[in-house]
Each structure stands twice: as structure tokens, then as C-alpha cells.
Automatic annotation (TrEMBL):
Gene Ontology annotations for the cellular component aspect, listed alphabetically: plasma membrane
Membrane topology value: Multi-pass membrane protein
Major location category of this protein: membrane
Record's keyword terms, sorted: Cell membrane, Membrane, Transmembrane, Transmembrane helix
Ranges of residues in domain ABC3 transporter permease C-terminal: 248-363, 623-740
Coiled coil: none
Membrane-spanning ranges: 12-36, 245-269, 290-313, 340-363, 412-432, 617-643, 664-689, 709-728
Subcellular location(s) of the protein: Cell membrane
Protein name: ABC transporter permease
Originating species: Enterococcus raffinosus
Keyword Chloroplast: no
Pfam families assigned: FtsX
Amino acid sequence: MVRKTFRDLRKNWISFLSVFLMSFICLFIFTGIFHLSQQMDVTGKEFVKESQLADTVLSVSRFDGDKEQQTNKLENITQVAKRSIGQYQTDKYSLTLLSFDHSSISRPQVVQGAKLSNRSGIWLDEDFFQARDYQLGDAFVIEQESYKILGTVRQPEFIYHTGSDDQPLPNHKKSGYAYVSQEIFEQLPLYPVHQLLLKTDSNNTPWLEKELASIWQDDYGQLTETQKHAGLSIFFDRVTQVRRLAFLFSSLFLLLTVITMEATMRRFVKQQQVQIAGLKALGFRRRTLLVHYLSFSMIVTFLGASFGCMLGPKLLSPALIAAIGNQFSVPAWLSVESSVGYWAVALVVLLSMLITLLPIGALSGKLPAKILQSQTTQRYKRSWLEKTKLWAYLPFSLQWTLRDIQRNRRRAVLGIFGAMGCMLLLIAAFGIKDSIHFSLDSVFRDTYHYEEKVTFKTALPSDERNAVVQNIDSGYQWLEQQTITVLKDSEEQSTTALVLSAGNELKLPETNLQHFTENQIGLSEALAKKLQVQIGDTLYIKLQQQMFPVFIKKIVPVSSPQGLFFSQTTWKNLQQPFQPQSLLLREKDQLTDMPMIASTSEKRQQFKDSQKLIEGILMIVSLLILAALALGITIMLNCHLLIFSERFIEFSTLKVLGFKQREVLALSFLETSLLTLVGWLLGLPSGWLFLKAYVAMVSTDQQQYLPHITFQSLMIASLVLLVCMLLVQTYLTIRIKRIDFATALKPSE
């Protein structure tokens, strides 16, 4: 039986190649993407561990030795360090400057040069250093003061550093960070924020926040968990997204692999009915036959899945790292080993063997005479469609095709699944690119109506705002952004509050904040789903250690920005001073040479930077298109070869009865087209649902992409599906032309 197994595999290698390819693709994509998520996760956690990152960061208005000692004596706090942080900006770049106190907490990793010390010099961010072509020992100028570059560093809090909310992707030439001693920091012309870095032995943030507010009183600013820092949060969110994508795509491919296996084995068993009957007549037991035919699925899927498991982490993961890895600043991507791939191989093999039992299980239990009984003795009842008046008006070819589909629903479902799966993946491939384009166009065309955004070094009070406005000739709007805490069902969620003055430079869809009264606010749609709230609900927000209720007046369907939207009036009703840091201008270059300006950014440049997001997904889009092509051709070919094997005698009989070859080919083409059409129709809604899930997974808290696919992309996807169908039909046409009448009709004699 072993020799028969390998002989049959050799003779039917084309049929089993499709199963091999599907199991290979399934494991190749799963292990490749899942290995990437593990690699990112391990690298990030190891980076955090090596730097002994603080658990929480307390922002205070000034340092106070006595209060620092009281803080250090709190029950949950094991270690305290302090640092100052400030922003230095020029027309060419933005630099976050930090001080250090030689503590081991949140200590940056020195990449090149001297260790951190009190020497008069500066340690630059390694990526910023490389992007701007600096050399160790060069002079770095800050406000006409020169500082020697003593070394370069990396710090996990800046693992994903964009410099500002206006920069969607890290641009190391335009933004970075640097460390100096506390003594030098105090000499710099900055607006500093003073911070205490806290190591704790338990996660009890509400209690700690209450105690620290009591100690620091008016000097208390904000307590933030380090893991919720923008850079780290985005990085580990990406890890979760990549892991979800691995399971999303592999689940789909696993389903289609099983379908392919079922179609292949059913056709193979159909071809081997005479041999099965002969083996049973010779005394072979049912168990022996089951093991023999299960071995086909076991061998083929094991080989395909094993190759996919081995090559996915070695080929796909490095390719994806090359595509998206440069967004993150890490010392090196660590290698990882995991047994998940081996378990996935075992699962694919097990499911394939179980699905093989469907065609062979029932047949192996029959008597040899029953197995040899011709299919021509089968009796079919008239289908419901044949009993309708419409049936008489249908052409013979359509009657023949519809009757066959109704009598062999399982077989038809397989053909529909092949076309539907192909269309689903093509919609996902083209749709994700369209969705990002659509979302960016929506933001920069419909939401952002300004041409330039001016950011000031510090928040401006009313008198300074009035002085600035005197120099403006066109429309403008003030914008204040704050990180606030939202309380929902006893759970706290950090998010962004955007406070807008009157104006249309930032125009929220279907929303006018100036019409809101009292404590009414707008809430971005993605955040509303995350918080599970709707219009009319009440949220509680924490401002200056006080809780304020706010009423959700409008849920805003916006891609970006994300957060809570307040009018200037509502903000003042909450007893908060309106101190905007940014000014949105309808026309650019209206404010120049003002010392209070930190930076300016043009909307056109923001849009160009945002479009670079497309480059990072081209690899995944290409992979999906190739997978869709392989899947469409493989499953459709298997299904229609199954149809051919089961209708082999019928095709021959039609030829003997005088039907011309083109008429027989037309019948085959009609059935292929009909099943593909149904699969295409079902693929449209299922592809849209899959695209929505895919888009939700790649969205972030800062940017929510809107699912969208253009008519042009749908036409291209449909055309690709049509090409797959024509390729399959071409192969079937060749097989039909080669039918040997004598051989085909012999079983029915």
C-alpha cells in the first residue's frame, strides 16, 4: 500500500499540487506575519527592560526637595528620579531636549561615543544623528550656543517619535531628541516641564494619583503611565494589529485549504472507485483503506505546511521588517523562536485528514458490488425549478446546467467558494490602499481647510492672541490640545481634548461646535465605539484633579483628529482657561519673524508625509494579490476538475448522441460562468465586511481609516477573477477535447 500511495501521488501530482500550495500559503502567511509580531513584541519589551523604564511619570511645575522625599516614602514607590524636558524648534527640525540625573531609571542606551556624564556637551538621538550626517565631536548649536556632540543614544519612550501630531510618520531628519546634563539644561532658553520618574511595585494608579496630588498640591501637573506614552503605545498597538492580521488571513486561508482538500480528495476517490472495490474484494479491511487514503492528505498538507512554516519567518518576516521596521527606533530586531508554527502545522494536517474522511469514510464501508455500481443507476427527483412554468422557456443548455447544480449542491458550493474567496482577497488588497487614500483625502480636503498651522513655544493668553491676530488678513482659528482622562464605568482612558475657537479652518463633518451649549461636546466615532457610548450619554472627564460631566451632543465621523471636541465656550463653562498653542491660518506666510513661534507646518507637506503610509503597505497589497490569484486558480480548478470527473460520462454521451464539440464546451463554460458569477456576487458583500475588519485592525488611536473601495478597483478585481475563470475553463476545454469515448462509456456498459 505504501508503494501504491507514492505511485498515485506521482500520477496525480497536478491535483495534489493545489493542496500543497494552499497549505503552503496558509502557513507561510501565518508564520511570517505572526513571527513578525513576536519579533516586535520581544524587541520592544527587551528594550524597555534594559533601560529600566519608569512605571509612571509625574509632571510638576517645579522641583521641591521636601516633596520629593515625601513622594519617595510612599508605600508603592520603590525608586524616584527626576528630569526636565523641553522643546527646541527651528525651521529645519524639532528637537526634544531632556536632562538626566545619573539614575538607573529610564536611562537611555548609549550607542556611540562617551557615557552620560556632566561634561559640557550633548548626546543626540542616534537616528537623528545619522539622518543629518553629524559626526562625533561636531558642534551642535542651540540659540547661538555651541555644544559638542559627545555621543548618540536610544530611549524606548521615543521608539516611535514623530515630534508633533502634525507629523504622521517618524521623519528622523526633521525630529529627534537629545540628552544634556541638568546644569546645561537650566541654561537653555526653553519652556521646561519638570518630571519625576517613578518605579512602583504595584499598579494602583488612582490611589497613587490621589496621594501625589495631596503632596504636590498646586505644583501637581499630571500622572501618566509610561506604557501609555505615545511612542510606546503606538508600537505595542502595532504588535497587536500585526498579530490580529496573522490570525485573520490565516483563518481565511485555512478554511480555503480545507475546501481545496475536500474537493481534491472527493475527485481522487471518485477516480479510484474501481480500485477501492477491488481492494475490498481482495480482503483489505476498512481500516487499511482509511489509513491509505488519509495518508494522501497527511503527506501533502504536512509537506506544504512544513515548507510554509520554515520559509515564512525566513522570507516574509524580513521583507515586512524591511517595509515597516524603519518606522521604529530600536537597537536591533531580536530573533525569536516559537512553537506556534509547529502547532499550526499539526492543526492543518489534522483538519485535512478529518475532511478526507467525508468522501472515503462512507465508500469504504460499502460492499465491493455496491462500490462498482454505476452512477447511471442513480435516480433523481425533479427539482422545484423543473416544476415551474418558467422551466419550459429556458434553453436546453441552461436547463441542463441548473439541473446539475441542484442535484450536486455540495459541488456547486465548492465552485462558488473558490470565486468568492478570490474576490474577497482582491477587494481586501485593492480596498486597503483605497481606504487609506480616501481617509487622507477626507482629512485634508474636507476637515482641514487651513493652509498653514503655526505652533507657539508656549500657550498664549488672551492679550498675546489679540496682538498676533492684528497681523492676520484672512480667516483663522485657534486650537488648544490637551491630554485628558475620560472616566467610563470606573475605567479611565487617556485621550486628546481639542478646544476650538470660532472658525472653519478645522471643520468637523456634520458638526458645528459653536452651536453647542453648556457642557455639550463632540466625540470622534472611533473613540465612541471604543468607549461604547452614543449620542445622549454622559461622560466624566478629569481636569485639574476635578471631575466634570460632559454631554455627548454629536458623534463625529472623522478619520483624524481623534478625541473629544470642545468649543471655546464649552471649555470656559468647565472653568478652564482657553490657552491655545496653535493657530490655523487660511493663507500661509502671514506670521513671520515672531520670536514666540516654535514652528510652522504647511498642509500640503503634511499631506505628502501622510501619503508615505501607502509605501509601507505595498508589500502586503502585493502579497494579497498574489495569494488571491493562487487561491482563485487553485480552488476553481479543483472544483471544476471535480465537476469534470463526475460528468465525464455525460460529456461523452452527449458527443455520442450527436452534440457538436462546441455545444459540449458551451455547456461546460456555462456552468463555470454561472458558479463564478454567484461567487462574484457573494464576494462583493463578504469582501466589504472583510475589508472593514482589515481596516479596523490597521487603524490606530491617532488615525482611524475609513473603509472604501473605488469603482475602478472593483472593476480590476472583477477582471482578475474573470481571467482566473478563463484560465480554468481553458484547461477544462483541453480535457474535454481529449475524452476517449470507449474508455469513458465502459463503466456504464
